[in-house]
Design goal:
Blueprint lengths: L3 H13 L6 E4 L11 E4 L16 H14 L7 E6 L8 H8 L2 E6 L13 H17 L2 E4 L2 H6 L10 E3 L22 E6 L9 H8 L4 E6 L12 E5 L3 H10 L2 E6 L9 H7 L4 E5 L6 H6 L5 E5 L2 H11 L14 H15 L1
Parallel strand pairs: 1-2, 3-4, 4-5, 5-6, 7-8, 7-10, 8-9, 10-11, 11-12
Length: 348
């Protein structure tokens, strides 16, 4: 999911700057070549001793990228955008600047050295921080998906001008047509698009759901053990984006379950916004906080604690929300790509 924003940039860049030449290097087999002059698939090489300390496939991918560039005779790069995780391929920054004199952009979809979700030892954090500092000091531009993630990155406080926010956004090219008032379910249909995780457990939500006769959950994503014995649940499994968006369109409410970490954001929130669905946010942290709250400014959403009583009260609040009329275009990936291009032009 995290790579979809980057894929959109690669595939649509030439729509904005037709004279550009776009190369893509990825570990994805048989990548799409839409809008791309040359797409190259690589696999990480054997990891070094460092891979025993930092479990990051980017360590082995670094050499594979250099080999791919040489084998394909790519020697005319002016700008390089590297995304992660994994993150250790960011160490190529110095190589690109020395070999090609290219401007290098690092895109952190998640925090690297300091990630509160991971219970890393002080030694591991210190090692990661050492590398992150080197990456960011050499890079020309640092991107991330929300301001909380940006603030966790090394060098942010000293060089704020080269740290920029570009949200994940929704792919406006895939959206089905929206018709106001089209959803006429007798039951309140809540949709969750994604994977359930232990630190964002749906257990209390499902307990609350089972006590409601007129509420149903539609789940799109990997089959989950959490749903094994649940009632009032429809499981659709993994579906293409187009089908996922159609299912969101036919539902009443979009569901977000968050651990409450301030930097935590999710791509699915933009799909809910794009299709003008009210959003239920179930959090284990502070209400109305973090990157998710920033995304939902001035947007109809109901927040509740991750406990059964709070969730059932939220169900009642959701029934009070009427039709939504929000200009969602500012949340699109097109807007994000336009901002990226503006930033690249400033680096020339």
């Amino acid at each position: 999911v995290g790579g979809k924003r980057m894929s959109y940039w690669a595939q649509n860049f030439k729509l904005h700057l037709p004279n550009s030449t776009i190369y893509l290097i990825t570990t994805t087999k048989n990548p799409s070549t839409k809008g791309i002059d040359k797409a190259i698939s690589t696999s990480p090489n054997q990891g070094s001793l460092l891979s025993y300390i930092i479990k990051d496939k980017g360590i082995g991918w670094k050499l594979a990228i250099i080999d791919a560039l040489k084998k394909n005779n790519i020697n005319d790069l002016t700008h390089v955008i590297i995304s992660g995780g994994p993150f250790m391929q960011f160490s190529l920054t110095g190589y690109f600047k020395k070999e090609f004199r290219a401007k290098v952009v690092l895109d952190y979809r998640d925090p690297f050295a300091i990630n509160p979700r991971f219970q890393n030892s002080r030694l591991k954090v210190a090692i990661k921080r050492f590398f992150e500092h080197r990456f960011n000091k050499s890079a020309d531009l640092i991107l991330s998906v929300n301001k909380y993630c940006l603030e966790l990155l090394s060098g942010f406080e000293k060089q704020k001008k080269k740290y920029e926010l570009i949200p994940n956004g929704f792919n406006e090219q895939l959206l089905p047509e929206i018709t106001n008032g089209e959803t006429k379910n007798k039951r309140l249909t809540i949709i969750y698009a994604g994977t359930f995780y232990e630190d964002r457990s749906p257990v209390n939500f499902l307990k609350a759901l089972q006590k409601e006769e007129n509420i149903v959950l539609n789940h799109i994503g990997k089959p989950s053990e959490y749903l094994a014995n649940s009632t009032n649940v429809n499981e659709f499994g993994m579906r293409p984006d187009s089908e996922m968006l159609e299912l969101i369109k036919k539902s009443n409410v979009g569901l977000i379950i968050t651990s409450g970490e301030p930097f935590e954001s999710t791509t699915k929130i933009y799909d809910y916004i794009a299709l003008q669905k009210p959003i239920l946010v179930v959090t284990s942290g502070k209400l109305y906080s973090g990157a998710i709250n920033q995304d939902l400014k001035n947007y109809p959403a109901v927040w509740c604690k991750n406990d059964e009583e709070s969730i059932r009260k939220a169900f009642k609040e959701l029934t009070k929300i009427q039709s939504i009329e929000v200009d969602s275009s500012n949340y699109s990936r097109k807007k994000g790509l336009e901002k990226l291009i503006q930033q690249l032009k400033k680096l020339v």
